[in-house]
Write a structure and sequence with these properties.
Elements: E1 2-10, E2 13-21, H1 25-37, H2 41-49, H3 54-58, E3 66-71
Antiparallel strand pairs: 1-2, 1-3
């Protein structure tokens, strides 16, 4: 199962954590990221991969806001 976790930061404090699962999980996490930061997640990710810092992309208030992708493996023996 794939899970997307959106950690929403404001001025170096976690303001909220949203967890998405299901077929539209990634899309929903990206949409909420855009609503919260006013920055498209793919644009953010490209710039982050190129070496820019969070605060240069999102501004100081939202620096640290991030989507984490997790793969949950369930034990079939339970």
């Amino acid at each position: 199962m794939k899970v997307y976790v959106l950690v929403m930061m404001f001025q170096d404090v976690v303001s909220d954590i949203l967890v998405y699962e299901g077929k539209r999980a990634e899309e929903m996490a990206r949409e909420q990221f855009k609503i919260y930061t006013d920055v498209d997640y793919l644009f953010f990710d490209e710039r982050l991969e190129s070496g820019e810092a969070h605060d240069q992309i999102l501004g100081e208030d939202y620096a640290g806001t991030m989507i984490y992708h997790l793969e949950i493996i369930q034990d079939a023996s339970n």
